[in-house]
Design goal:
Blueprint: H1 3-6, H2 15-51, H3 53-61, H4 66-87, H5 98-120, H6 125-132, H7 135-146, H8 153-172, H9 181-204, H10 215-232, H11 236-240, H12 245-271, H13 275-280, H14 284-296, H15 303-320, H16 333-336
């Protein structure tokens, strides 16, 4: 019996082969680490872009009507989508998945943006931030019911902490609920947008894979334009003539950045992240909105807003860095085919 045979666990492979195997394990570990953070990074990027939406949207609807703002949003986002399709040729759904992809696209773009845009003209930014901050709660509840994701105490506590921070931010920015007719209508519309976004986030989750994630918001922009154009075209060109240079930049920000780039990032992040955890990032746009207001509009960040921001970040980190909920139910092979 040789020494090699008597030494337990000794690797008898040639040195070169052992080196290759070690290098492969190192590369695999690095790829796994990158994949782990790809989802949160995409969700964080989407949140940062969406954080500028209240500032840009309120600037635009202060000059043009909400219906023209909605049409501009879908028109310019559709032009951006056509440019992407012509130059980058991204993956599109299989023919059998087109109806479902279009439905998800309309739910995530038209269903969210239309009530939000019309609601913002009736309520203050702080109130809107508070109402949209309920979307993660709806997302977590629906994820537990529909996707059977387990909501651990850490997740629930993080949701509550971030919601408390959203309330503090809303109070610090002058958020309050009015009981006039316009204020109630505006609040209901913004709340409807939050609920529809939660429904979109949960129902689209199992289909991200069978349907290329980036294709869903792109199809939503294209088909959404066909729906809103007949109702908003009258006087559209004259309305756009009233925009100055800053107005056009604001228009492009929420038409291209918030309607195309951010939804694509969100879909990519949602594919890699449980829906309940991805919904947590919905607390971050109001925080980015406060920061953007301070940078672009010289708005002062008061103590209440700073405290709310700390609570939001603490709640999101507490829940996002915990153990993942159970995996979602993917569509069966028969459903995909």
């Amino acid at each position: 019996m040789t020494i090699a045979q008597t030494t337990a666990g000794e690797d008898n492979r040639p040195r070169g082969e052992r080196g290759r195997c070690g290098s492969e394990r190192h590369v695999s570990h690095r790829l796994s680490s990158l994949e782990r953070w790809a989802g949160p990074a995409a969700l964080l990027g989407a949140s940062a872009i969406w954080g500028f939406v209240p500032v840009s949207t309120r600037h635009v609807i202060g000059v043009v009507s909400p219906e023209h703002a909605v049409l501009a949003r879908f028109l310019f986002s559709s032009l951006a989508v056509l440019l992407v399709l012509a130059t980058l040729r991204p993956a599109l759904p299989a023919r059998r998945h087109w109806p479902r992809a279009v439905y998800f696209g309309l739910l995530g773009t038209l269903g969210f943006n239309v009530p939000l845009t019309f609601g913002l003209q009736h309520i203050e930014a702080g109130t809107a931030a508070l109402l949209t901050g309920t979307s993660p709660l709806f997302t977590a509840a629906l994820a537990a019911l529909v996707l059977h994701e387990q909501l651990r105490p850490r997740m629930i506590f993080g949701l509550g902490l971030a919601l408390a921070g959203s309330v503090v931010v809303a109070a610090g920015t002058g958020g309050g609920f009015g009981f006039t007719g316009d204020a109630l209508v505006g609040s209901a519309l913004v709340l409807l947008a939050a609920i529809l976004w939660a429904i979109y986030s949960v129902t689209v989750k199992p289909w991200l894979g069978p349907i290329p994630p980036a294709s869903i918001p792109m199809l939503g922009s294209l088909f959404g334009l066909l729906i809103v154009a007949p109702f908003s075209a009258r006087g559209f060109a004259a309305g756009l003539e009233q925009l100055d240079g800053i107005g056009w930049l604001a228009m492009l920000q929420f038409a291209v950045g918030a309607s195309v780039v951010a939804p694509i990032l969100f879909a990519q992040g949602l594919q890699r992240t449980p829906a309940s955890r991805a919904g947590l990032y919905g607390y971050l746009p109001p925080l980015f909105g406060v920061i953007s207001g301070a940078i672009l509009l010289d708005e002062v960040i008061g103590p209440a807003t700073a405290l709310g921001g700390v609570l939001i970040l603490g709640g999101v980190l507490l829940a996002a860095l915990g153990p993942s909920p159970a995996a979602v139910d993917q569509p069966s092979e028969e459903a995909v085919n």
